[in-house]
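Because showing beats explaining, we think one record worth quoting, sequence and backbone structure tokens together, and here it is:
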Amino acid sequence: MAAYVPPGWPPAVHPPGSEGFERTAVAWLLDVVPADYRLYGVLRRYPVALAAMAVHHADACVAGARGGYRVARSELGDALPAHGLDAVLSAYRAEGRRLVGIARAATLVSRALRGETFSPQLTDAPRQDSAAGEEAAAEEAVSEKASGQEPSGKKTRGKKTRGKEAGGKGASASAGELRGQTL
């Protein structure tokens, strides 16, 4: 019976416990980190260390892409035509999805290298892209505010929005405050 691998597992890496798992994990992780990391033999000798560095590197890349996306309009708005800026934002979104996938995969490989075993979970069902979900929720909140409707009461990623939990204001948080909490 083949070992179970969770959604997001990198296809180039053999399942944990199988022949060649560690070898393929190291090869894939070395492709995730900058090329100069190949110069350090310690990372090949201790794949867990390589995995930890790959997770940190991938997380930093995700943070960098998110930061670039946030400031792209103010940074490039006067230097690019509107269609060029839209293309840059589209590239950031696509690259962001790719980087998030790599960060998740690196975390899974790291956990497997530490001996964790995976088993199917109900939560393994495919999920909606979180950036698209956040964008839709923000648009809905702006639309409701503009039309004077009460907020729909949908959950905002586990954040409480009433009373002292919303910053001690004792009233509902505005749509702008909710959007700020989800980023």
Notes: The chain has two domains: 21-122, 134-182.
